[in-house]
Amino acid sequence: MAPSVAPLARSVLNAVLPVRCMACGTTVTDEGALCATCWDTLRFLGPPACACCGYPFEYEAPEQSLCAACVRGLPHYDRARAVFAYDDASRSLILSFKHADHTHQAPAFGRWLARAGNELLCDVDLIVPVPLHRWRLLSRRYNQSALLAQALGREAGKPVAVDLMTRRRRTQPQGRMSRSARIRNVRAAFAVRDSWQERLQESRILLLDDVLTTGATVEECARVLKRGGAASVDVLTLARVIRPQT
Fold this sequence. Notes:
This protein is of the alpha/beta class. It is built from eleven helices and six strands.
């Protein structure tokens, strides 16, 4: 479409099909945006936070401080960051993207991920999504983590390796599992494809997923990637569950 025609066409389209808030459906001015009310309900994450896993602190702390969980034992990944907390305000936004075919939200999420993961993107060689098992991909028709990775790659100008990892067996849904059960559920579930083995060597990987809950899935993926030759593995997610740490 010619540059002079595009704005007019967009105005006509917006008049016929008004742009809607991604969360509540209220009319907004820009595509891929939230209304002011929905924006204010989201808990966006940032400093002060654990230097390793990104868990938010409720108080100011030195830049390299670790949370209690990371002090007890560091995860297999190097750093993790997330855009916002997974809670009542963000749940419908995530679930509609993940299960209700709201794939048009991916470009907006890519922009948010680029901002939240700015410090991680400086060091990355490849963006890699957490894979779905082939049967789950067939039933869902798309891998939400792969869509996020591709959107982030376009936004940040970084290469994306959608098929670098494979899920070798179909794991059980983890929604109601404890952390220990999740660890058992994903153990030996992932592998690096032979075609990517050479490229993986000494690469700095940014692992993409939609939600970080206990970290069992991304930790298993990070373990497999490092065993396969990755120099480092950072994790970036759209949301993360925030629970009181003991």
